[in-house]
Amino acid sequence: MVWRRVCTAFLGVALLTASACSSDEAKSAPTTKAAPAVSTTTARLVDGDSGFATSHGLRIHYEVHGKGAPLVLVHGWGASIWTNWDVTGWLDALKPLRTVIAIDIRGHGDSDKPHDGKLYGYAPMSDDVIAVMDHLGVAKADFVGYSLGAFVGAHLLGHEPDRFTSFALIGIGDEDKASLALAPRIAAALRAPAVKDVTDSEAAMYRTLVDADPRTDREALALAALEMWPQGYPIKVGGPGLADTKVPVLILNGADDPYAKTDDAFAAAIPGSRLVEIPGADHLGIFTHPQFRKTVIDFLSRNGH
Predict the structure, then answer these.
(1) Confidence check: pLDDT of 118 > 50
(2) Residue 37 placed within a domain
């Protein structure tokens, strides 16, 4: 279930990206940015800045937008800062309210994309977030994560609670084994010579969407999918620390999201968490639903810095 959910997240943002890119006002697709071999200096929170932090020897790309209390954004599987937060209008909506620290998690966007499955997982991806915060001198921040980013948030909530003042976790439920076989199917599609060689129509769709970003490393995404699937669901990912949660937590899903039907179990594992399901929205449509952005911004206004 996890990988159908996180892959579907990319489908949603890819469709949004395609729609945006068809307009005259669309922002051009990013190209891979050059980076130093090692990032050693401490950056400042400067609107419009971007750079790289180092996490276990990997370069992790970040962007800083806006002014105010710090807010970390983490995207879904196969996506990036650009596809999840930029072309969807989220950066423009949030930067008047917060200093947004948007992160390309390892294997994605402009961050390093290692070809070693053991380097992928919720724990090392959480380390990527902490590395960026440390690099920027940020002691605490609010956190918003979507799909894969919400899983990373669940790990941080259970293991690094003192670094965050609130969590908004979007597109996330707990265990559902209906799509156990999807990860190897997607990995096989990503490893095919071309999309025309993929006979699995569902997997071919994801391959087509992944290929739309010129920065994509298909092998890195395949390894990430295969490695992270057995690592568990949000309650397991967060661990016993979830029961000690003392910060505000919003769990936000579309009521028609078939990949978050067990969100009530996840919410029950987090004391004081608030579960919101938006009528008429699914895992993809939640990004464009007008109530979605308002719910997150209202939550941050009430419970964040």
Answers:
(1) yes
(2) no
Is there a contact between 75 and 84 (Cβ–Cβ < 8 Å)?
yes
Q: Is the pTM of this model over 0.90?
A: no
SS3 content of the chain, % helix, strand, coil (to 5): 45, 15, 40
In a domain, 25, yes or no: no
Query: pLDDT per residue over 243-258, tens digit each?
Result: 999 999 999 998 888 7
Q: What is the 3-state secondary structure (H, E, C) of 67-127?
A: CCCEEEEECCCCCCHHHHHHCCCHHHHHCCCCEEEEECCCCCCCCCCCCCHHHCCHHHHHH
Structure tokens at 238: 């967060």
The token pair at 248 is: 């505000």
In a domain? residue 41: no
Pairing of strands 70-74, 141-146: parallel
| Number of CB atoms found within 10 A of residue 163's CB | 18
